[in-house]
Specification:
Blueprint lengths: L4 H18 L2 E4 L2 E9 L7 E10 L5 E7 L3 E12 L2 E6 L4 E3 L3 E5 L5 E7 L8 E8 L3 E10 L7 E2 L2 E2 L2
Parallel strand pairs: 2-11
Antiparallel strand pairs: 1-2, 2-3, 3-8, 3-9, 4-7, 4-10, 5-6, 5-9, 10-11, 12-13
Length: 162
C-alpha cells in the first residue's frame, strides 16, 4: 500500500500542531497544566523560578507536593508573603492546594517553583523537563519554556500568551 504525498503532508501538519499544543498544555486525568515557563539565568546562577497554572476539573481537591528536574539539585515550592512591610520568600513544605473545580496560578509574587542548585544555565528558547508530584494525580512531567530575563509570562511567537 502506498501513501499519497497529500496524506503525508496532512499527517505532518497534524503532528506539528499537536507538538505545538503540547508545548504549553498538559493533562493528567482531571488536572490541566498550562504554560509552564521559567526565565533565563546567568552563567553560575544557583537558582531559578518556575511558573504555571494548574486547573482541576474534578470533584476532589488535589495538592502539588513537590517536583524534580535534571537541571536542579532540588525543585522546591515557595510563596511570597508580606512581613512588616517587607516581601519575603518562604518554602512551602505542606504542598499547594489545587481546589476541585478550580485552579491555582504559580506566578511571581505568589506561589512558584524554585529550581535550587542549578546544574547549568537556563537558556532562552530551551525547554527544561520538570516532573511535578501531586497527591492524587501522581507524577506529571512537563516542559518549562525558558523565556528572556525580565519576562513577565509565557511567550508564543514573540507575543504574550493568554
Amino acid at each position: 500500500m502506498s501513501i499519497s504525498p497529500k496524506a503525508l503532508a496532512l499527517g505532518a501538519v497534524v503532528t506539528l500542531m499537536a507538538s505545538a499544543a503540547a508545548a504549553h498544555g498538559y493533562r493528567s486525568g482531571v488536572l490541566s497544566i498550562q504554560h509552564p515557563w521559567s526565565r533565563e539565568t546567568a552563567v553560575g546562577q544557583a537558582v531559578g523560578g518556575g511558573f504555571l497554572t494548574i486547573a482541576n476539573s474534578g470533584t476532589r481537591d488535589d495538592r502539588l507536593l513537590s517536583g524534580t528536574s535534571p537541571v536542579a539539585a532540588e525543585v522546591q515550592l515557595h510563596t511570597m508573603t508580606m512581613d512588616g512591610g517587607v516581601m519575603r520568600m518562604r518554602q512551602v513544605t505542606d504542598g499547594i492546594a489545587v481546589p476541585a473545580k478550580g485552579s491555582v496560578e504559580l506566578k511571581s509574587g505568589g506561589y512558584h517553583l524554585m529550581f535550587m542548585g542549578l546544574r547549568r544555565q537556563l537558556r532562552q528558547g530551551e525547554r527544561i523537563p520538570v516532573t511535578l508530584r501531586f497527591q492524587r494525580a501522581g507524577n506529571v512531567t512537563v516542559q518549562f519554556a525558558v523565556q528572556p530575563v525580565g519576562s513577565t509570562g509565557p511567550m508564543e511567537g514573540g507575543h504574550a500568551s493568554h
